[in-house]
Hints:
By secondary structure, the protein is α/β, with parallel strands linked by helices. The chain has helices at residues 10-26, 38-42, 59-64, 66-83, 94-107, 126-133, 142-149, 161-170, 176-182, 199-210, 231-238, 250-255, 266-273, 286-295, 303-308, 323-334, 336-353, 358-369; strands at residues 2-7, 31-36, 46-50, 87-91, 111-114, 136-139, 156-157, 190-194, 220-225, 244-247, 257-263, 278-282, 314-317. Helix 2 links the parallel strand 2 and strand 3 (46-50). Helix 1 crosses helix 18 (358-369) and helix 5 packs parallel to helix 6.
Amino acid sequence: MKYYIIAGEASGDLHAGNLIKFLRKKDPEATFRAWGGERMQNEGATIVKHYRDLAFMGFVEVLLNLRTILKNISFCKKDIEEFNPDTIIFIDYPGFNLRIAEWAKEKGYKTIYYISPQIWAWKQSRVHKIKKCIDHMYVILPFEKDFYGKFDYDVTFVGHPLLDAVEQYQEEKPKFETFCEQNDLPDKPIISLLPGSRKQEIKSVLPIMLKLKDQYPDYQFIIAGAPSQSPEFYEPFTRKKGVNVLYGKTYELLQQSRAALVTSGTATLETALFDVPQVVCYKGSSISYWIARSLIKVNYISLVNLIMDEEIVKELIQSDLNTKKLKSELDSILTGVGRAKMLDNYIKLRKKLGGTGASENVATQVLKTL
Length: 370
């Protein structure tokens, strides 16, 4: 089989990489052509475009880069026709993927969506386009099946692939002292900083996170460097603070962390599955946030709270993301009742997500479908 897979972000690259691994086990002669990153490439996919060249965040940034986005859409259609795949698999990334999916369906290609766009949060009208142009949808959040059911669209819940990814790392967890020695770090408890993968979001939240460092002399602050960013990009942030950056080791870092400050997104769920108490941080441009706030139909911005349908991790958004409030929330999860309560809620979160095996489940379903 020939598979064309489109993932536009780091999290999509992770999940698509795991999917390719299991598809290859079941279909050893398969060929994969993809938009994605290193994880997909490591599993044998030929990468057409890297996701770091596709990540435009917020309404304003999309408008400023509209010409580039339209060129990418045109190029993608041409590349698909030349490759002529047996199926196209879309991974999240709705603004781009739904445009391609609509065109692909008209051209007669088999269309599969794995990891639904968050249309339950906003732009719910997109469900009609999905029904029209997607042959099969595989969802990873338990409430998504009910959401699509309201629109008379039958989707398959396969479990969350992060459960598999995290479990694999936990099996090989080194001792804390060994981790520090291997990465040339002092022997102090770690507060990890996960400020996101896009330049824009990192510039917005990382300076605020770093302001806390001097107030916690008994801890070391370590930044999880995004694979899509260079060391030079982080240098202005870390030069004065003397903070270390670890690249490509986010899971290893979370394994060893006492607490974390995390930008909203998939990272909030990853942090929870590693049992690391966290504070969720978000700060965008005023215009983008105002537009989003007027359109979004959910009560929370972190996946953890959305899945649990209650605030089990504190979300500091826009003006609430300041040094005083961030310190107060961090203090509450480092020790005591606040920490114990959050860890207890993480156990409930795991149960709600179902068991492991999502990536293999999807691979089985895809081959059955084709």
